[in-house]
Amino acid sequence: MSDSIDYSFDRQHLWHPYSNLEQPAQVFGVVSGDACLLTLADGRQLIDGTSSWWSCVHGYSHPQIVAAMQSQLQQLSHVMFGGLTHEPAIRLGKQLLAMTSPQLTKIFYSDSGSVAVEVAMKMAMQYWHGRGHSHKQQMLTLKHGYHGDTFAAMSVCDPDNGMHNLFNHALSPQCFGPAPRTPFTQALTPEDISALETLFAKNHHQLAACIIEPIMQGAGAMFFYSPEYLKLLRRLCSQYDVLLILDEIATGFGRTGKLFAYQHADIEADILCLGKALTGGHISLAATLCSDEIARGISQSSTSVFMHGPTFMANPLACAAASASLAILETGDWQQQVANIEQQLQQQLAQAAHFSAVKEVRVLGAVGVIEMHSAVNTSLLQPRFVELGVWVRPFGHFIYIMPPYTISSAQLTQLTQAMTTVAQELSRQALPADTPCNG
Ligand SMILES: *Cc1c(COP(=O)(O)O)cnc(C)c1O
Q1: Distance (Å, whole) CA 393 – CA 383
Q2: 3-state secondary structure 76-141
Q3: What is the DSSP letter of 188?
Q4: Domains of the chain by start residue, with CATH
Q5: How far does residue 131's CA lie from ligand 1's centre (Å)?
Q6: Ligand 1 atom 5: residue of nearest CA
Q7: Which residues, in sequence order, are bridge partners of residue 138?
Q8: What is the pLDDT, as a whole number, of residue 165?
Q9: How far is CA 111 from CA 64, 142, 219, 319, in A?
Q10: Could you tell me the distance, in angstroms and rounded to a whole number, from the CA of residue 85 to the centre of ligand 1?
Q11: Cβ(265)–Cβ(180) under 8 Å?
Q12: How many Å lie between the centroid of ligand 1 and the Cα of residue 7?
C-alpha cells in the first residue's frame, strides 16, 4: 500500500480488537468517513456495511451531530459529574425517558456498553441487598449471549464460545439456560418453554436478575428469536421475583425495526442497558436505566448510595452528540429507512441460501446475516471485501451487515452483491477437489 500511514509502528505497538501482536493481521489505514463511505489512506472508498460495530446508524460525520459536538466542545468538553450537573446530561436524560418505557425513570451514564452492563448487574445485586434478600446475587442468562468484555459482563457471555475457559477462576458462576431456538416469526416451541420454566423454578431463590439481549442474540449468535420467548421471560421474572435486565446495546435505536427490540414483545424491563448507537457512533457513551422501585431498593442497602461513579460519567461532549443523534431518530425517518433496508436484504440475500457452504440466511430490520456451515477466516475475507469496494467484517460463522440506516439502495445492492459473491466463492472451495465446477 502506498500511503502515509506508519503500518510498521501499528504492527509493532498497537493492539487491535481481539488481536495477536506476534502475528498481527492486516489493517487498513482510514482517513475519513462521510455518510456511508469510508476513505482509506490509499484513496480507495468503501461502502460501509458495519456502522462501525453497529453504532454509526446515521452515517459518519453527520452534520447535525458534528455541529452539536463542535458547539459543546467550545463551551465545555468535560467536567466531573460529582457535585456538578449540566444541560447536555439533562437534555439527553429527558429524551431517553421520553423514548423508553414509562416505568424507567432513573439514568446512570457511563463510558461504554460493558460498563453499562456492569452497572446493571450491580444495580440488581444492590437492590436485593436493600430489600433484605442478600442471597439473591446470581444472574440467569442464556447460552450464545454476549454482554461485553469486562469481568462481570464476561461472566454472563456464552460459557463455551466466550472467554470462560481462560478466566474461569476469576468469573462469578452464573446460571445458564439453553440458547433460544424458536425463530422470530414462529410460535414458541414446547422445548423453549419448558427449559425456561424449569430454570426459574429451580434457581429463583438465588437469582438477582435475568440478563439477556432482547430478540437478537448478536455477537454470540446473530440469531433472531421469537417475541413470545421474551414475553414468557417477562412473565417468569415477575412470577419468581427476578429482575429483568434487557441489554439493548446492540438492538436499541431502531436496528431491528422497532425503536427498541423489547417493543416487538410489548414488554418492559426493570433495568435497560443502552450503548453503541446512542451517540450515532460518533463518540463513546452508554447508559443504564432503571425504575423507581430499583432506585428505592438501592437506597435501602447498607451504603444507601449506588456504588459506582466513573471519572468521565455523563461526559458533556458525548451527551451533546447523543442528544443530536436522538433528535435525528425523533424525526421518525429511520422507520421507513429500516423497513426499506429489510425488504431489500430479504430480496437480495435469499439466493445465498442455496450455496453449499451456507447454512441459513436471516434478515430482521437493518440486519442481514449469511450463516456459513463452518467458521470463516476473517483475515482472508477482509481484504477480499475491500477489493470488492465494501467494508464488511465477517466473524465466526457469519457474513453479515448492519449498514447505516441512511444507506442508498444502490449502495446496499453493492454490499449484498459482495456478500453473496464471497459466500459463493466459499461454497466453490468447499466442493471436493474432483468435482467439476464452472467458476
Ligand atoms: C457491544 C455489546 C456490548 C459491549 O459494549 P462495549 O461498548 O463494546 O463495551 C454489550 N452488550 C451487547 C449486546 C453488545 O452488542
Answers
A1: 10
A2: CCCCCCCCCCCHHHHHHHHHHHHHCCCCEEEEEEECCHHHHHHHHHHHHHHHHHHCCCCCCCEEEE
A3: P
A4: 7-61+333-430 (3.90.1150.10), 76-331 (3.40.640.10)
A5: 29
A6: 113
A7: 207
A8: 81
A9: 22, 25, 20, 11
A10: 27
A11: no
A12: 28
pLDDT of residue 1: 52
Determine the 3-state secondary structure of 391 from DSSP.
strand
The span from the CA of 436 to the CA of 103, in Å, is 62
Q: Which of 147, 367, 402 for mutating ligand 1's site (highest number of atoms within 8 Å of CB)?
A: 147
Nearest in space to 58 (alpha carbons), one of 389, 379, 322: 322
Contact between 37 and 8 under an 8 Å Cβ cutoff? The reply is no
- Positions of the chain with pLDDT lower than 50, given as ranges: 431-439
For residue 39, give the H/E element and its range.
Answer: strand 37-40
> Which triple of cell numbers denotes residue 342?
429489510
Pocket test for ligand 1, best of 249, 279, 367 (most atoms within 8 A of CB): 249
Annotate 104-136 with b (16+ C-beta within 10 A) or e (fewer).
bebbbbbbbbbbbbbbbbbbbbbbbbbbeeeeb
In angstroms and rounded to an integer, the radius of gyration of the C-alpha atoms of the chain is: 22
Residues with CB under 6 A from ligand 1: 112-114, 117, 146-148, 213, 218-219, 247, 249-250, 275-276
Residue 430: the pLDDT is: 58
**Spatial contact of 270 and 304, defined as CB atoms under 8 Å apart:** no
Whole-number Å distance, alpha carbon 114 to ligand 1 midpoint, is 6
CA of 432 to the centre of ligand 1 (A): 39
> At 300, which amino acid appears?
Q
Indicate the top mutation candidate among 111, 117, 155 to test ligand 1's pocket, ranked by most ligand atoms within 8 A of CB: 117
Contacts of 413 (CB under 8 A, 6+ apart): 344, 348
Nearest CA to ligand 1 atom 8: 113
Catalytic positions, written as ranges: 18, 146, 247, 276
Cβ of 162: how many Cβ atoms within 10 Å?
A: 23
Residue 97 has a CB neighbour count (10 Å cut-off) of: 15
* DSSP state, residue 182: S
Smallest CA-to-CA distance from 401 within 420, 384, 429 is with 420
Closest residue by CA, ligand 1 atom 15: 250
Cβ neighbourhood burial of 410 (10 Å; 0-12, 13-18, 19+): exposed
Cα–Cα distances in Å, from 190 out to 176, 194, 196, 229, 336? 18, 6, 10, 11, 35
Q: Is the dihedral of CA 103, 109, 112, 114 positive or negative?
A: negative
Give how far Cα 62 sits from Cα of 59, 141, 255, 379, 417, Å: 6, 36, 18, 30, 26
